[in-house]
Amino acid sequence: MNKLPAPQPAPNKRRVFLVEDHPVTRRGLGLLIDQEADLMVCGQAAAAVAALMGIQTTKPDVVIVDIAIPGRDGLELIKDMGELHPQLPTVVLSVLDETIYAHRALQAGARGYVMKREPVEQLLTAVREVLAGEVYLSAAMRKQLLLTSLDLSHPVSDFGVKLLSDRELEIFRLVGEGFGTQKIAATLNLSISTVETHRTHIKEKLGVKHAPDLVREAVLWLQSQNYKQ
Amino acid sequence: MTNAKPETAAAHLPARKRILIVDAFPLVRAGVRAALGNHSGYEICGEAAQQHDTLRLIRELQPNLVTLGLNLKNCHWLELLKDMRVQFPTLLILVMSTQSESMYAQRAIKAGSNGFVTLLEPLEETLRAIGSLFAGEIYVSRCVISQIASQMARRRPDGNRRSLQNLTDRELEIFELMGDGLCVRQIADRLKLGKSTVETYRNRIKEKLHLPGNPELLQSAIQWKWSGSWRGQPAELQRPSSHLTAP
User: Fold this and answer.
1) Share of residues in chain A with pLDDT > 70 (%)
2) Residue B111 in contact with residue B99, Cβ under 8 Å?
3) Closest Cβ–Cβ partner in B30, B34, B247 for A169
4) In degrees to the nearest 10, what's the CA dihedral of A43, B141, B101, B118?
5) Is the pLDDT of residue A150 over 90?
6) Minimum-distance CB partner of A216 among B120, B181, B244
7) B213: nearest CA in chain A?
8) Domain A150-224: which CATH class?
9) CB pairs A-B closer than 8 Å
10) Number of neighbouring beta carbons within 10 Å of residue B9
11) Residue % of chain B over a pLDDT of 70
12) Interhelix angle for A48-58 vs A74-84, to 10°?
């Protein structure tokens, strides 16, 4: 195999910046992007601070971010990039389930979401779509979003925690801390059946069916709140 | 070519060592392929992304070594690893983990893998590990070794009382499935166990982790699975609930 010199910045190639903490995956990503005729890697970073600095100096056209990167929440990095470079589109690449995380990523300002287990073609499609000013989600996610938007009881613009009343939010927070119904009732001086009623309402408002889903939503929400403090 | 020592079955084996890459993520497979691709002594004979394909391809392609990611869908890696070890006793298995916890390394080695590296390490670490495995050694990456050493140094009589390390493989598997949001019935179906057996396991996990009840257990499992952090104990009861910030 011929050793090629470092790729010259060709004017017709769109510049891609990679934020990914696993060297193996970063190498796979770099190879994938660089072998495309219209794309090239202009820089890469393994953590949020290095990413912000690298983006400043390399001026990419698009950023691919793994939202499980260390140091701080990848979602927070996306928000920072949105503030500093509002025109720069971001594609999230993640191990985390899209049905649970994609809407969080989009709300933070990402323009695309691709799961790591999907074929690499999906990532390339996502990069090209967001470069063209589109939003990219998998077919399954688009369908889910469409169905949610058709369900008038869950207006998509105001989906989730914002719908909770103060009392419900308080209980939601305790659920995220690992409090069971009995303990919540004792802590807030409420009856168990009242707490159960609140839990049912919370589940309805969040659009989740089962107890483990409620706990997961609460844990993830609490985590995002802790980042803000 | 030098022949250091005669190999059994060398007659029908190719000169280059055959490696099968197993990982659910295409980009990881591409990265491993790139890391090994330039080495003249190795040949990538195939890739697999699922449990079923993994066992089939080992049978068909007869690799000398498998790199095994821990992220295959609908299958717990410890079970797969043990299956591989039983079905292919001489196969070299290198676990490539996203988890850097030493607990995973210890379990992987115990379950029959020959080496353990994490994806956080440079590509050369993978090459170094594979070289060691072919030399007949057990290889655990440096960052994991130093973790184990510092744990040993820190260990007090009750130091690891609440540690996940105290869980058996089965208990850890059930704890992780709970973190995925599976209920008792779903876990029972997945593992082909009775509901009451899973409940028994659940009680044992609670006892070992000193968790008072099912809600605390579920919260811990989800926290572990989604953020990799293990607090080891449920929230304090005196947490103030008066001051709430709007979302």
Assistant:
1) 85
2) no
3) B247
4) 40
5) no
6) B181
7) A180
8) mainly alpha
9) 140
10) 8
11) 82
12) 30
Q: Per mean pLDDT, which range of A21-30, A107-116, B163-172 is the poorest?
A: B163-172
Three-state DSSP at A40 gives strand
Q: Is the dihedral of CA B190, B193, B199, B200 positive or negative?
A: negative
Q: Which residues of B touch A23 (CB under 8 A)?
A: 31, 119-123
State residue A130's pLDDT score.
96
The partner residue sitting opposite B244, judged by closest CB among A24, A117, A169, is A169
Task: Check pLDDT > 80 for residue B158.
Answer: no
Tell me which of B99 and B187 has the higher pLDDT: B187
Task: Output the average pLDDT for chain A.
Answer: 85
Enter the ipTM. 0.72
Taking CB atoms and an 8 Å limit, are A95 and B25 in contact across chains? Answer: yes
Q: Which of A119, A123, A178 sits opposite B219 (nearest CB)?
A: A178
In chain A, which residues have their Cβ closer than 8 Å to the Cβ of B126? 24
For chain A, residues classed under CATH 3.40.50.2300 are 14-145
CATH 1.10.10.10 in chain A, residue ranges: 150-224
Q: What homologous superfamily is domain A14-145 in, according to CATH?
A: Response regulator (3.40.50.2300)
- 8 Å CB contact of B27 and A1: no
B129–A contact, CB cutoff 8 A? no
Better-predicted residue by pLDDT, A93 or A155: A93
Q: Which residues of A136-149 are buried (b: 16+ CB within 10 A; e: fewer)?
A: bbbeebeebbeeee
Could you tell me the pLDDT band of residue B101, with boundaries at 50, 70 and 90?
Answer: confident
Task: Look up tokens 């079923």; give the residue.
Answer: B52
For the stretch A21-43, pLDDT in tens is 899 999 999 999 999 999 999 99
Residue A99, pLDDT score? 79
Amino acid at the residue B224: W
Q: Do A176 and B219 touch (CB under 8 A)?
A: yes
Do the Cβ atoms of A179 and B235 come closer than 8 Å? yes
